[in-house]
Amino acid sequence: MSNFINPVKSAVAELKELITDAFGRLVAEGKIPAVAIPAFNIEVPANQAHGDFSSNAAMVCAKPLKLPPREIATLLCGALVLEGSHFKKSETAGPGFINFFLSEKWFSKTVKDIITAGNDYGKSSIGNGKKILVEFVSANPTGPMHIGNARGGALGDCLCSVLSAAGFCVSREFYINDAGNQIEKFADSLEARYLQIFNKEHEMPESAYQGEDITEHAKNFADIHGDKYAGENSALRREALVEYALPLNIKKLDDDLSKYRITYDKWFRESTLHESGEVERITELLKKSGYTYEQEGALWFKTTAFGDEKDRVLIRANGVPTYYVPDIAYHYDKLVTRGYDTAVDIWGADHHGYVPRMKAALQALGIDPDRLKVIIMQMVRLVKNGEAYKLSKRSGKAVTLETLLDEIPIDAARFFFNLREANSHFEFDLDLAIEKTSKNPVYYVQYAHARICSIQAKSREEAGVSGELPQTSNLIPPTTEEELALIRHLAAFPDTIELAAADYDPSPLTRYSMELASLFHKFYAQCRIKDAEPDLMNARLALCDAVKITLKNILDMMKIECPEVM
RNA sequence: GCGCCUUUAACUCAGCAGGAUAGAGUAACUGCCUUCUAAGCAGUAAGUCAUUGGUUCGAAUCCAAUAAGGCGUGCCA
Length: 566
Hints:
The protein has about 575 residues and is α/β, with parallel strands linked by helices. The chain folds into 4 domains: about 5-100, Arginyl tRNA synthetase N-terminal domain (Gyrase A, domain 2); about 105-125 and about 440-560, Isoleucyl-tRNA Synthetase, Domain 1 (Orthogonal Bundle), CATH 1.10.730.10; about 130-175 and about 260-375, Rossmann fold (3-Layer(aba) Sandwich); about 180-260, no CATH class. The protein contains 21 helices and 15 strands. The protein has helices at about 5-30, 55-60, 60-65, 70-80, 105-115, 145-165, 180-200, 210-225, 235-260, 270-275, 280-290, 325-335, 355-365, 400-405, 410-415, 430-435, 440-465, 480-490, 495-500, 505-525, 535-560; strands at about 40-45, 55, 85-95, 95-100, 130-135, 170-175, 265-270, 290-295, 300, 310-315, 340-350, 370-375, 380-385, 385-390, 425-430. The strands form 4 sheets. The chain has a 5-stranded parallel β-sheet, with helices on both faces. Helix 20 (about 505-525) packs antiparallel against helix 21 (about 535-560). The longest helix is centred in the middle third of the chain and has 26 residues, at about 235-260. The structure holds one RNA strand of 77 nucleotides.
């Protein structure tokens, strides 16, 4: 499935070998004492003048070798054999760094490898086929989704793509809280609105959902059933109302999320855990774990034994389980019953205190708590005309996902929400998101893609060839700094995916795409393609192709369109 | 009170398994379209990396304390 082309990794591995060989040679020649060489790093210097890679090998050896770092660096440089490698030059610099410069061959090879890999370029196998279940959005089915769900959706969906690209076997899941207190509250609200239709005096409970969607449900229900349920007993009436409205709400969630380009592998209903007896079974398992006790008529779980700040109630004194129990049952289902290696949950920051609680329960059940990875997402602050934008025109309530997508393109929403890491307080500039200029990062990146498409078409036309360019068999090496910088960055793509996957954070990829677009635009401004010499034109078209492939691979992951014309 | 998160240029943010002169975009100011998409490029200016200590050859990065802000701390979810 995945190609193992990682131009940076292979270069780094080669360098480590070259340096180790050089040490060996120095020892053999008696120039340095034979002591254990400490681990050293190969890194990409911030400053390009310092080469393509640099190593601190000489610096970390200063102590064991009892020699000044610069002297060691000079010795190492003398002992390095670069012939036949992908490097053309090494030099000592600064406090004792050794800087390495890649040969032109490496650059040509990288371009060729990317084109060969195509859709697979960037994929990695670090996931090793491990099964990951990512649960995200899981919005309350009692009402519309809000702006936090919009962030969670874009983040979760993109994270799934990243993990897939990194070689994990990923499932997307939505957990529907269709049981418990909030459904009771939903029933309260619907019932009150329904009864109000026939009796204006009827009062709405203060704790009820006040949104217009509730009123609409009640009205539509009354259109179908009239006052038939007004005289019924409350339990029947509530049941009928919930049975009517809940599926509509769930359908709406699904519809809205589909518009947002999110489709789940599974919608998991909390109610099934109650119906199947799993909730009771988990309660028994927890009791058996020895970490529960009864107090004041309630059943408590000793979360303090696992570092939480206080113990928590599992079963209320009235015999009804708190939300905690089905949640534990749900995670048990993910990690044990269904056997996922890892469960990733994306939660709003207001739930962060819940993390130690959930992990404590897993531990009590003998499950490694590290198998649950909770991504905490900080709040989003919408800004319009330089001011906080809090209210939605339609409902007068918090801005809904639907309202947001009315205001800005889906591409922009998905891109913007992945611009920052989840755990950063996020300011979303609505004016910027709809702007069609280079200020808007989405357009900037898409424009690079469209530009390449245009160049390719024009150049082929000019050369009078029928789609046969570029020929990658014999690329002439790049020479300009713009080309070199662009290829260096292309080569870093697989590492960026691995980094994003390891941190469960897609945002490095978003920023990577902006940098790639920027380097491409610079290259475009500086290097002619259409009227270049045939060999040069071919090489540059190949480079364009490699950029286009990489851009497309990223935008596909984010489910953002790759326009050929803008 | 206790816990988690945040604090880097005027604004929004990168950088944080310690490394060589702290980066980008926006806003401000200058240039560049008879030449492959100006939705673009080039340039100028902008910093006490919240503060104070510590760790060491070296700290925006690690540790501690302080300050400011956000969020938690329910027999709500």
